[in-house]
Amino acid sequence: MDIGKNILSIKTNLPEGVKLVAVSKTKPKADILAAYKTGHRIFGENKVQDLTKKYEELPKDIEWHFIGHPQSNKVKYIAHFISLIHGVDSLKLLKMINKEGKKNDRKIKCLLQFHIAEESTKFGLNVDEAREILDSEAYKNFTNIEIAGVMGMATYTDDKEQIRKEFKMLYNIFTQLKNEYFADSKSFREISMGMSDDYPIALEEGSTMIRVGSNIFGARNY
Ligand SMILES: *Cc1c(COP(=O)(O)O)cnc(C)c1O
Q: Which of 60, 94, 144, 168 has the fewest Cβ atoms nearer than 10 Å?
């Protein structure tokens, strides 16, 4: 596995303006440093405990993304340094992020996660649930949160048309919310979609941020 080569080959083929989140979950520091040496700075983790450890031990100019939904009671451990939380799917979690943002005197960027896959196990909102959050008094009073866009995961399948349909759905949700709630917002602009197996389709469907793990670091052994 040549991590440096993998990351560079993905990045040279990315459309202008699209960001790569190198998903380093379960991988050791040495692997992250191999990617870091190529100049890459954006890494994604999905466990608070692993993330805080890596944050402490690795270079401080890394931009850390949380790619799942942190448990509310654990947000406090990442609030002072996290660059973007991709998996926000409840008002309760937003409240906690706002509270911890306030304590740390910063605005924390979040993406709303939508359920676009067929599998019922995957987390995420539908559009009506998102509207409910965005219309709530609680949301309007948040001072330390910035909603930077949307995130979703497609069904795990070989059916490319199914995957494409789901990414199109997320793109449409983004456009809808942009028009209804964020027309004047410069920060609402990210569509986080695409992983190792499906990111080429996600790029064709308008992704602005892909989250790639195994294609860079190799398969994970859980
Ligand atoms: C693990 C994970 C990824 C990366 O998955 P790969 O298939 O290894 O690229 C992307 N997004 C989320 C939310 C993940 O949990």
A: 60
